[in-house]
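Following up on my earlier message about glutathione. Here are the inputs again, as you asked, copied directly from the submission form:
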Amino acid sequence: MRKILGRSSSINVRKVLWACDELQLPYQQESWGAGHRDPQQPEFLALNPNGMVPVLQEGDFILWESNAICRYLANSQPDSPLYPADARRRADIDRWMDWQLGDLNSAWRYVFNARMRNTPPNPNAAQLAEGERQWNHAIGILAQQLAHTGAYVTGAHFTLADIVLGLSLHRWMMTPLQRPHWPALEHYYDRLRERPAFARYACQQWP
Ligand SMILES: N[C@@H](CCC(=O)N[C@@H](CS)C(=O)NCC(=O)O)C(=O)O
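Thanks, got it. Here's what our run produced:
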């Protein structure tokens, strides 16, 4: 049986749960990570030396890195609309997924941790302002892309890129900050909210 190790409060675990949901793939979940089982235990480190969630386990096949897991799951179905086989469409989806992990993720850290996790408890005002500028700048790039496609991140269809960026956008929407008004981005967020899976993995409780 496919097993997903990780707590549902983790944005990276929720990417994988949402992908399973869209792909209708059954799984068992074991809650590891902050507030649950400690991923620094040797038993978990043997699966992922980073001590991070999520981890996918299918028999003796082990995979960590949330976006790689999402791709692997989509690949279990030939030519899934979430991750079409065409090389250029795939490269476009990969590009936005890599951008989410490599660029967007580093832009939200200071502001989100300060405002939503109280870490640090007395944040530096200049760092907060700079963090907010960087986060808004990155989301502005997504907004520009959505104004261009008029629908989803890579075009007319919902793909894996919308799962990973949809959760990131939800985090930005839920965090107290000065948000510029970008109509295409707001329409996109409304479109995502119509999906039943969005309500399960990007709800109020989990920014
Ligand atoms: N690049 C990794 C990052 C994983 C990550 O940062 N996981 C966080 C939760 S979102 C974690 O394991 N935190 C430690 C914990 O919960 O104990 C991925 O995308 O899978």
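One observation from looking it over: Helices lie at 11-23, 42-45, 66-75, 87-117, 125-149, 160-174, 183-193, 196-201. Hope that helps, and feel free to reply on this thread.
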